[in-house]
């Protein structure tokens, strides 16, 4: 599978406290912010801390996000290999195509396709 980008997703019980910790205590640089979340640089990777998608406990509180070119094609390959599918790919309200799988230890992996017309693909520099 060709991974275009990836990040670790945290869904803590207190997102504001966690964002302050990573921003102010650890001093991580911010990659981008969006309503309810912040994405930080962590070396060659990214860490997203957000208020949606979990309650800070259980297997959904930490997940992996992997961007691929064609999420449906990747899902077809993974199903053939016996990977557990949590949710088939669909277009989310925010415009990304997302599908969810689970690794053998229960970690949720979100496979994401960013459509050509999505704002994430636009250069917002002026």
Automatic annotation (TrEMBL):
Domain VOC: 3-114
Lineage, uppermost ranks: Bacteria, Bacillati, Actinomycetota, Actinomycetes, Pseudonocardiales
InterPro entries: Glyas_Bleomycin-R_OHBP_Dase, Glyas_Fos-R_dOase_dom, VOC_core
Name under which the protein is recorded: Uncharacterized conserved protein PhnB, glyoxalase superfamily
Species the sequence originates in: Allokutzneria albata
């Amino acid at each position: 599978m060709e991974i275009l980008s990836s990040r670790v997703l945290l869904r803590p019980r207190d997102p504001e406290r966690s964002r302050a910790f990573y921003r102010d205590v650890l001093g991580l640089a911010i990659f981008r912010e969006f309503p309810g979340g912040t994405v930080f640089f962590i070396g060659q990777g990214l860490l997203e801390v957000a208020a949606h998608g979990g309650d800070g406990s259980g297997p959904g509180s930490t997940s992996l996000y992997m961007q691929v070119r064609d999420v449906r094609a990747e899902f077809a390959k993974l199903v053939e290999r016996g990977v557990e599918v949590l949710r088939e790919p669909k277009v989310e309200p925010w415009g990304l195509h997302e599908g969810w799988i689970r690794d053998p230890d229960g970690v949720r992996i979100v496979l994401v396709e960013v459509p050509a017309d999505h704002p994430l693909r636009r250069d917002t520099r002026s």
